[in-house]
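Example 768.
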Amino acid sequence: MKTNLTFILSILFIPILISAQNEIKIIPNPQQIEVGEGFFTFSNTTELIYNYKNKELTTALSPLFLKLNTSAGIKLKASKYKNKGNIITVSLSDKITNDEGYELKVNPNEIIILAKKPSGVFYAVQSLLQLLPIEIECCTIIKNIDWKIPCVSITDAPAFGYRGIMLDVARHYMPYEFLKKLIDLLSMQKMNVLHLHLTDSQGWRFESKKYPKLTQIGAFRKGTPLNLTYDYNSRPNDTLYGGFYTQKQLKELVAYANSKFITIIPEIEMPAHSKSVLASYPNLACLDSSGKPFAYPSNIQDEYCTKDSTFIFLTNILTEVMDIFPSKIIHIGGDEAGKENWKKCPVCAKRMKDEHLASVDELQSYFIKRIEKFVNEKNRTVIGWDEILEGGLAPNAIVMSWRGEQGGIDAIKQNHKVVMTPGSYCYLDHYQSEDASEPTAWGGLTTLSKVYSYNPIPAELNTKQAKLILGAQGNLWTEFVPNSKQAEYMIFPRSIALAEVTWSNKKQEYSDFISRLLPYLKRLDQFNVNYSRHLFDIKMKTYVDSTSNQIMAKVIGIPDNYLVFYTTNGSVPTKNDRKYIGPIPISNSTILTVGALYQDIMVDKIQKTFSINKATGKPSELKTEPSKYYNKGGNQAWNNGVLGSNSRFNDDEWLAWSGQDFEGTIDFQKTEILNVVKIRFFNKPSSWVYLPSKVSLFVSDDGIHFKEIESKSNFDFSLDGVQEISFQTKGIKANYIKIIATFYGDIPKGNPGEGTPAWLFVDEVSIE
Ligand code: ACM
Ligand code: ZN
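Predicted structure in complex with acetamide:
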């Protein structure tokens, strides 16, 4: 019967060879689309025929019931038997080979959904909903809309079985309701894993019944300066910050995720990143050479000691965790263990001797293997960050490759499964645009197009090896993400690009992806998603026009068919502002913001601040070349009239030196009157970036003999960001100035990068 039906349908269904992408806009892109003729229209007489005794199938279909009801006011009738007319038939069939695959056929009178499992039906429904007008995502009934979809035949299945997003709820606590919203949104893009980073030095978020201090003490910290949390005890203020999820909440969350075919993988960090635990239970810390626990909080102690009580604690915790989270995969962290205390601790020394371990790397391997054995006994598998390779991989562990792809490749060569999350493609805590007004992020630049360009299968792997790659995941670490609104900004739309990478992994042109993303963003609007509007990686280049001698600002990277507008007061441009038609001459100090619009949606923007002053564009010289990593603006960037970003130092304006002084000279080419001389530096000790220890200003009439005017020192290192050092020169006359900024020196003990030379960042000089 089924074969006959398929046969009849296939002759009735005559594909038209027009570009599917022009008509059907589904994200992630289905593997195969054939567009037919005509439409299927939903109405109150539409019947949904399926085995409604199958609960999981009912769950898979519920978004269709719910959305048609809420937005269209259409109540689908569920029926077990097939009637004539306007019907949707859903059946499970082994004809579909992929567990999550589906077929969706839309004919004028019938929609046919075929899948192997309910998850496939859920994904067919997600595609179907994207065929409906965007108002289907609305939360109230919308009148005067034809709820119809084009006839189409879609055959689809994911390229990878693991399609994930990691959210760090430890560095900043994220509200429970936000986790549900995230699950909703990820499921719409056919993602199937939410990895929750539940514990870290800055906070413990999992309610343990057995160890209540973890949430009484470990879930709260004092000190969230400027919402940045590099460290548990970084520059404290007095506000208590934190939160945790109860076991009841997490159970509910798991069930909620399950109803959207998303697995929540819990992560309990070990052996490092554990200061929040050591604050709660200090006996789990290593001993110092006198046999006392290391004083807490200490800057370096963030590992558990390898004593037996640590393993008792962790196995008890994991038992509670596994009771709440049915996920087959349990994440046990494993990253960034410095292991310094292990080298000094007599208990760890004894452990190494007893277990014949030659190094602290082998001690970490022993630690992870011992935990893995316990987790395996409970019929679960561990996954860990790629450091778990060091000292020997635990026998059954899955590796999450984050320091590039090499860890993943090495694990595969040892026949282990891998999830790819390389920083440069998958780290959502990186900046996504060069726009100077971006919120502070970790660093790096991972644009939407960069994420989209990712292929989780490294070229050097053969087909058999490639099968060990389960998929890929985007990671949002939240040191610089203080709330859920900003988390949305960092996740979307980059996670949508990753959804397409992991589901389709069939490279469409980026412009094709964008053509489907743009209407999809309007769907996200219905959910009030604070997605980022940086779709094109546009850049603003500045140069001096050779005829007019004027500074010009040119915007590059916007496709031709977008309208571009600009403002000069820092506001976000709208279509009522001035139209950008070519390079803009800059004659005054101004904040220039240029934005590209798609219909009314801002799809990219870039901002730069110009400071036009007596130093701007004058011949200048640097005694020492800046670092090749931070010289994008060229040696003149420190007096080109364009300010570096206030929140980041890796843009194309900031110049930097490592372990060297800055010495710059400007030739005014005439006698100039100097009232105020200012110069900007960047301070971010957590990233090894320090203000100078001293800044000195010199003047000269001949460019050879310089006289010191003033030196300044004792700067405030407690605040991250730009600091402008200014000299009141009160009308002094000079033909040249020289500024020497002495680099900070070696980074002091107890700070990130201790013992190595500090970086010195400079941009820009301004003279009134
Ligand atoms: C990591 O980013 N530390 C896994
Ligand atoms: Zn120890």
